[in-house]
Design a protein that fits this description.
The complex is a heterodimer. Chain A has 13 helices and 13 strands. In chain A, about 50% of the residues are buried. Chain A has two domains: about 240 residues, 3-Layer(aba) Sandwich (Aspartate Aminotransferase, domain 2); about 120 residues, Alpha-Beta Complex (Aspartate Aminotransferase, domain 1). In chain A, helix 1 runs antiparallel to helix 8 and helix 3 runs parallel beside helix 8. Chain A starts with 11 loop residues before the first strand and ends in a 13-residue tail after the last helix. By secondary structure, chain A is of the alpha/beta class. In chain A, the strands form three sheets. In chain A, strands 2-8-7-6-5-3-4 form a seven-stranded mixed β-sheet, sandwiched between helices. Chain B has one domain: Sufe protein. Chain: A (Alpha-Beta Complex). In chain B, strands 1-2-3 form a three-stranded antiparallel β-sheet. The longest helix of chain B is centred in the last third of the chain and has 25 residues. Chain B starts with a helix and ends with a helix. Classes of the chains: A alpha/beta, B alpha+beta. Chains A and B meet through helix 9 and helix 13 of A and strand 1, strand 2, strand 3, helix 2 and helix 5 of B.
């Protein structure tokens, strides 16, 4: 039996948006495909190939089922970064000669979407970056206004990786379908956590990451609609695997892992959502009962329960991280980067830079326990109080000085 | 990124945190900006011979910023204002083994010392 995920109160993992541990059931399902059923799923002429192919096709069906797709519409990739690259570059290259040279995306997308769009921009494509409101959501009227006759695609993420807000996919899908443009969504953070249905939401391309949903790193999938058909130029050429869109021998073990992770998510999503929401409420209640001046970034309701981005006013994020070394989580502050600039996502929301510097992202996941959150909340409360006692900003704010009235010297 | 033991020590046991009540014999320096993620307030109390008898700080910033300002107060206490104003950011950075991306924390600490001394001197001139 595979070891279960370990609990260690000195090293509490609260960074589930960065990656997740493999579910032991996932690892269990994968094991035979390393040493026993090691065949090449594309060989198709003997027993070993057939059993590997069967495993891959079963996994493909499990992935498809989670998003309401047909298995033939799912192709395996190395992860969501590749899926996003393939969706955007693949479609852009195919449809370029048909005059479809405009792509609409949004300023808070993951770097792999933004950077891919930047490259397409250098290649002659016109990219519109929609702004977001202070709640982190795009405005649907902005979207409608941005669509033009040459618009090929709208690429809007399902759930944001930094702040956890959920974009209105159903409404975006309806707008895209009516306008006759493709709708791609990077659903790396949303799949398995909220119900997703590519037909109900009119999604034409959907990116999935394995390691965000308790499968291993190194595997993902891209949903590519067949009716109406979306055509993609491959990024990787070769033997024509994955309907010619992604050549290269698949890893049956990784595919089985992703499939099993999707099957577990589909079975347990409702119960897991309920549990995560209870844990989040417990955690937030504990924090707000002890600390004033803390703010959740992003829409209060349209969000993943397991992704909290919280600003602790008057306390710098990296300094805070140093005092909570028992917790593995991310800071919205980018003080370590040479630019000294805080998160581009928080800035896009219009979060003031000083508050953006004070934010932490806390990820609650499948293996998070109430005991861990209790310890985590205590650590955060203790450190925030200590740092506020030595914060000149807290002292000034408490003395009634408006921090904005001071002429700060930028450095 | 790994912090040096000295940074960790000053972060966990900061020296001279607090405030000095403003008077003619004190100087206050407030440097940095919240939007940049670092603000330091450093205060000194100076006796008639020009010796710094007390120093306090409060800092909003990362561990290296807290450690730099904590170290600065420790170093200037007991020094004359001339001696204190000769402390260089490179001395602080070297002592705390700050990595290149954190050098600005030591620069800010040096600025805070200078700014506190200037504030003290301007008060002296006004009362003179």
């Amino acid at each position: 039996m595979t070891e279960t995920v370990k609990q260690d109160m000195n090293h509490i993992y609260l960074d589930y948006q960065a990656t997740t541990p493999c579910d032991p059931r996932v690892v269990e399902a994968m094991m035979p495909y390393f040493t026993q059923k090691f065949g090449n799923p594309h060989s198709r002429v003997h027993h070993h190939a057939w059993e590997a192919e069967e495993a891959v096709e079963n996994a493909r069906a499990q992935v498809a089922s989670l998003i309401g797709a047909d298995p033939k519409e799912v192709i395996f990739t190395s992860g969501a970064t590749e899926s996003n690259n393939l969706a955007l570059k693949g479609a852009a290259q195919f449809y370029k000669s048909r005059g479809k040279t405009h792509i609409i995306t949004c300023v808070t997308e993951h770097k792999c979407v933004l950077d891919t769009c930047r490259h397409l921009g250098l290649d002659g494509f016109d990219i519109t970056y929609l702004p977001v409101g202070s709640d982190g959501l795009i405005n649907l009227d902005d979207l409608k206004a941005a669509i033009r006759p040459e618009t090929l695609m709208v690429s809007i993420m399902a759930a944001n990786n930094e702040i956890g807000v959920l974009q209105p996919l159903r409404e975006i899908g309806a707008i895209c379908r009516e306008a006759g443009v493709f709708f791609h969504t990077d659903a790396a953070q949303a799949v398995g956590k909220i119900p997703m249905d590519v037909n109900e939401m009119n999604i034409d391309l959907l990116s999935i990451s394995g390691h965000k949903i308790y499968a291993p790193k190194g595997v993902g999938a891209l949903y590519v609609r067949r009716r109406p058909r979306v055509r993609l130029n491959p990024l990787i050429n070769g033997g024509g695997q994955e309907r010619g869109m992604r050549s290269g021998t698949l890893s049956p073990a990784l595919c089985v892992g992703l499939g099993e992770a999707c099957a577990i998510a589909e079975r347990e999503m409702a119960a897991e959502q309920k549990r995560t929401t209870e844990l989040k409420d417990f955690f937030m209640n504990k924090l707000t009962s002890e600390l004033e001046d803390i703010y959740i970034n992003g829409h209060p309701e349209h969000r993943l329960a397991g992704c909290l981005n919280i600003s602790f006013a008057y306390v710098e994020g990296e300094g805070l991280m140093m005092g909570i070394k028992n917790l593995s989580l991310s800071s919205g502050s980018a003080c370590t980067s040479a630019s000294l600039e805080p998160s581009y996502v928080l800035r896009a929301l219009g979060v003031e830079e000083e508050l953006a510097h004070t934010s932490l992202r806390i990820g609650i996941g499948r293996f998070t326990t109430k005991e861990e959150l209790e310890v985590a909340a205590d650590s955060i409360i203790k450190t925030v109080k200590k740092l506020r006692d030595m914060s000149p900003l807290y002292e000034m704010a408490k003395a009634g000085i408006d921090l904005k009235s001071i002429q700060w010297a930028a450095h | 990124m790994a912090y040096s033991n000295k940074v960790i020590d000053h972060y966990e046991n900061p020296r001279n945190v607090g405030a000095i009540e403003e008077g003619n014999d004190t100087g206050t320096g407030l440097v940095g900006a919240p939007a940049c993620g670092d603000v330091m307030k450093l205060q000194i109390k100076v006796d008639e011979s020009g010796k710094i008898t007390d120093a306090k700080f409060k800092t909003f910033g990362c561990g290296s910023a807290i450690a730099s300002s904590s170290l600065a107060t420790e170093w200037i206490k007991g020094k004359t204002i001339e001696e204190a104003s000769s402390i260089k950011n490179s001395d602080i950075a070297e002592y705390l083994a700050l990595p290149p991306v954190k050098i600005h924390c030591s620069i800010l600490a040096q600025d805070a010392i200078q700014s506190a001394i200037e504030n003290y001197k301007s008060k002296q001139q006004q009362s003179a």
